[in-house]
Amino acid sequence: MNKTGLQHHDPHLQSVYQGTFKIYDFYILSKHLLIELDGIFWHGKLKKKKDYYPIQKKVMENDKIKNQLAKERGYNLTRIWEDELDKFDIKQLL
To answer: For the chain, what are the domain ranges?
Structure first.
């Protein structure tokens, strides 16, 4: 239990890769769908790859691993950019 009093044990939201947990932001059970919300800075949306900071390179590599894990396990994965969230209609996924 964390300090918010919530427990997180949903196996659909986490995968193990080389001994580390990869946790996804959301899971829609009825659609077998994982959703990731990608921050503009952290996921390097506004930069060219050659200009990424080391932390952005690390995040991008982690994204590739999470994409592959989702695919290998038969999940659909949707990524939504932070700056597109306010106009994103979740109903299009349902």
So the answer is: 11-93
